[in-house]
Amino acid sequence: MAPITEVEGRRLALSNLEKVLYPATGFTKAEVLHYYATVADVLLPHLRERPVSFLRYPDGPDGQVFFTKNVPPGTPEWVTTAEVPRTEGPARMVLVQDLPSLMWAANLVTEFHTHQWLIGDPGHADRIVFDLDPGAPATIVQCCEVAVWLRERLAADGIEAYAKTSGSKGLHLLAAVRGSSSEQVSEYAKELAVEAEKAMPRLVLHRMTRSLRPGKVFVDWSQNAARKTTATPYTLRARAEPLVSAPVTWDEVEGCRAPDPMLIRAPDIAPRLRDYGDLLAPLLDAGHAGRLP
């Protein structure tokens, strides 16, 4: 029988705590839950008021991996849910608003993916995101080079960008924005991706054309569409090791010369938080939000 744990007055049944979820390191489900409890203070602000899509991997990355957008069966009644507009009709999704909800969701064994808008105003984006995805033999080293160009280009329009690893092989660039719809932000992001390709034609692609990908960085601007989601800061990823989609400093981005230093694992996060705090905290401050030109 699964042990019952009380979290801020909510009773949770936490199951299969000894199961190894990350085979390369022996990282267990208990360690996954401990990780999320440890980073809750910085993770929850990036989750609150954003409908969550769960990418579940209950038997580890080598088992079945599947997306769950609707409220999962068996969701406790105290977990906040909300109706979300979709082209095929409204749906109900989970909002992870507090520590009990976070630990309940973590017990499902999931990546957290969120939209670039808040549930109170789903028609308007409050973030812009670029997913920089390298095609081998390109690596995150080339992604960092592209990220620096995009940071400077965004800064020219009065928009301050921040970086995080994807938790896989790439890099995410994010900025807070205001006053624009998801469609407008998508159009602007596409314009910058096209500009980047023109400026660095041997390095950058703005189209997801597989035959053109080798050796280049695909600047995925499409994740700004209202229906799309991106890996939430601090989420674990379904990989052989417990890699995290982790905020990084611009010094780390500019100094990137090899992929390995940018592979940030769950045990690395607590020391990084002590050293840097939440590097993406400005995204949560409306005063840092820029306006599209």
Automatic annotation (TrEMBL):
<feature type="domain" description="DNA ligase D polymerase">
    <location>
        <begin position="28"/>
        <end position="278"/>
    </location>
</feature>
<dbReference type="InterPro" id="IPR014145">
    <property type="entry name" value="LigD_pol_dom"/>
</dbReference>
<dbReference type="InterPro" id="IPR052171">
    <property type="entry name" value="NHEJ_LigD"/>
</dbReference>
<dbReference type="Pfam" id="PF21686">
    <property type="entry name" value="LigD_Prim-Pol"/>
</dbReference>
<protein>
    <submittedName>
        <fullName>DNA polymerase LigD, polymerase domain-containing protein</fullName>
    </submittedName>
</protein>
<dbReference type="InterPro" id="IPR033649">
    <property type="entry name" value="MtLigD_Pol-like"/>
</dbReference>
